[in-house]
Write a structure and sequence with these properties.
2 domains; mainly alpha
Length: 266
């Protein structure tokens, strides 16, 4: 009994330390952005928080880095969005409110979404990497070379696909499917680079949602439902994907036909 009590106590202490450290990381990141205006220092904090990735023999570095890429993408996306909000020409009360909201969302990612290992949570993690990564990429890359944008989008697609396929123990075709999905999203990024439409959020004019981020997450959701159906039934059943397909096509059609006029070209 004493041993069990000791285990519970250690478990509670480790959970408490984990929670405090993650909250401290999120606060430190937003504080660095707020008071120094340096996105590089904030990204440096994210990299330092991942010291355990390299606290092993070098031959394990790539495996650890690959398993943490989704968190890297989401974390750096939050940093970039905080940086954009902090530099936006809006009054301080609203700016602080937006930074606080982004900080809370980042804490939610660190404490409640990232640690989960159920398939549904893994799908959410991959979707967050695609949506947040794409929106952050197109928010800051307007003067980058197109090759860099395409390569970054390929990395986002490859990482997210590899992450979700790991939940299915896909060993035979996992690498090929991940590479293929990265190539598909990179082609979309190449097209979107030449004409990017972004939408203002209601009451949050400092943040814009690029149209390509919405299209990328919709296509990824449809691909996920299709693969899930194939995995369970050895074929893609129309009954499993008809609603996701109609939803994806409807939203994409509305965005491309109706909302291009009200978006902001960047």
């Amino acid at each position: 009994m004493e041993f069990l009590k000791l285990l519970r106590k250690r478990s509670f202490l480790s959970e408490a330390v984990y929670t405090v450290l993650n909250i401290a990381l999120a606060i430190a990141v937003v504080a660095v952005i707020r008071y120094t205006g340096s996105v590089g220092f904030a990204i440096g904090l994210i990299v330092l928080s991942k010291w355990r990735v390299f606290a092993v023999r070098p031959r394990f570095w790539w495996a650890n880095l690959r398993s943490n890429l989704v968190d890297f993408i989401v974390s750096i996306s939050f940093v970039l969005h905080m940086y954009l909000v902090n530099g936006a020409p809006i009054e301080d009360p609203r700016k602080l409110l937006l930074l606080g909201a982004l900080t809370l969302l980042y804490i939610g990612w660190l404490l409640f979404i990232k640690p989960r290992s159920k398939r549904s949570y893994i799908a959410v993690q991959a979707g967050a990497a695609i949506f947040l990564g794409t929106s952050a990429l197109f928010a800051v890359s307007y003067n980058w070379p197109v090759s860099v944008v395409v390569l970054a989008m390929w990395l986002i697609g490859y990482t997210a696909a590899r992450h979700i396929l790991s939940a299915y123990d896909e060993e035979t075709h996992g690498l090929f499917l991940s590479l293929a999905w990265g190539v598909l999203l990179s082609q979309i990024a190449w097209a979107a680079y030449h004409w990017t439409i972004a939408y203002n959020l209601p009451f949050v004019t400092a943040l814009h949602i690029p149209q390509v981020a919405i299209i990328a997450i919709l296509m990824s959701f449809l691909a996920f439902k299709s693969y899930d159906s194939f995995y369970k039934n050895a074929k893609i059943r129309m009954t499993d994907i008809i609603l996701p397909l109609l939803f994806t096509l409807s939203v994409a059609l509305v965005l491309l036909v109706l909302f291009n006029r009200v978006g902001t070209a960047i």
